[in-house]
Amino acid sequence: MSWTKTKSYIEMSIKEKIVNDCGGTQLIDDVNHPVRRYFRCWLDGSYHDWATYRRNCEYITENHNNYQRMRAFVVNQFIAYVAHEYRCSLSYAQECIVSAVADGGRILSRLETLNDQLIEDALDLIEIPQEEE
Fold it and tell me: Does pLDDT of 27 surpass 70?
């Protein structure tokens, strides 16, 4: 009888930790997933300062109707958050996120779904005025 010892979280490599924390469907499906909750803290300035919050709110307010700009914003912010959290480079964080979200041939659709969810998380920072009918 053989068994494989599983690694503890401390023994995992950076990539293994990111895949463990961001992999599967929970990150996409669960608005309260810890990674998404901490990402919202990243956006609201909790990791940095009030100026970060104000800058992010201004950007989101100005661009909330521009999908391409919002997508670029959340992708860059999420990569920066992951790189900070796991103490790695931006390019390595991006590579690890792609590995974590990968699910066979559905990688692009899963990444786009994640991007859409992160945009929703970012929009939660601001009040969007309702258009009058």
Answer: yes
Are 43 and 122 spatial neighbours (Cβ–Cβ below 8 Å)? yes
Q: Rounded to the nearest 5 degrees, what angle is found at the Cα of 26, between the Cα atoms of 23 and 29?
A: 130
**Residue ranges covered by each domain of the chain:** 12-123
- Sequential DSSP letters for 24-50: SSHHHH-TT-HHHHHHHHHHTTTTS-H
Identify the three-state secondary structure at position 7: coil
Q: Mean of the pLDDT values across residues 68-84?
A: 98
Return d(Cα 121, Cα 16) in angstroms, integer: 25
Quote the pTM value.
Answer: 0.88
